[in-house]
Amino acid sequence: CLITRVKNDVTQRYAAIGTGNFNEDTARVYTDHLLLTSDKKITNEVYKAFNFFNVNYRKDNYYHLVLSPFFLRNKLTLLIDNEIKNAKAGKKAFIYMKLNNLTDRELINHLYEASNAGVNIRLIVRGMFSLVTGIKDQSENIKAIGIVDRFLEHTRFMIFCNGGNEEYYISSADLMPRNIEHRIEVTCPIFDKNIRSELMQIFNIQWNDTVKARKLDASLSNKFVKSDKKPVHSQVEVYNFIKKIHEKSS
Length: 250
What we know:
The protein is an alpha+beta fold.
């Protein structure tokens, strides 16, 4: 969504970039993230993205947004390669992803390569999942869970360690060939430190779920995650976390 406001010959743009669409039928049961911003680095490129539908023979340059089907595969490859390089250099390296589906074979193989290099990979995937975790000399450093609960987990975001200078992205795309190669999808960097912190905390809350999370492993048994500690019901905890933030800001 893009709003353009002109006042006293000054143009101001506001963009809303989400991990899901505006759908009145699903709004009560789907959970998504949406960035509302007036940052020109983002809004000017959202304008370009919308303009593409008017002149789709012209592919503009983008320095912040990552559009499918043009740039996403290459961008993700570069981000994973960077984690591989840092892991091999003895630096901290991790990849955290929250997705609906992960089926793209090329990216899965690249994640295997990252695992073999020592990159710590955590995946939260609700739906289709073609990667096999915990296989010796293939995916020993990859762990994955899926959460199915009252609300449908529809958010997509990714966090890359980047040598300690973490990079955060929200995306409308799942890591499937159809989304990467055949659809217009937008992946957006998150620059605001507070929002980045919120995303990391939400990921950690969900990663530690012991009520609705199931292990996605080679056995395909999808067993619930068990713990002797106090139960963590992530959808409830995330709701309380976000509610607390808004209470502080109001």
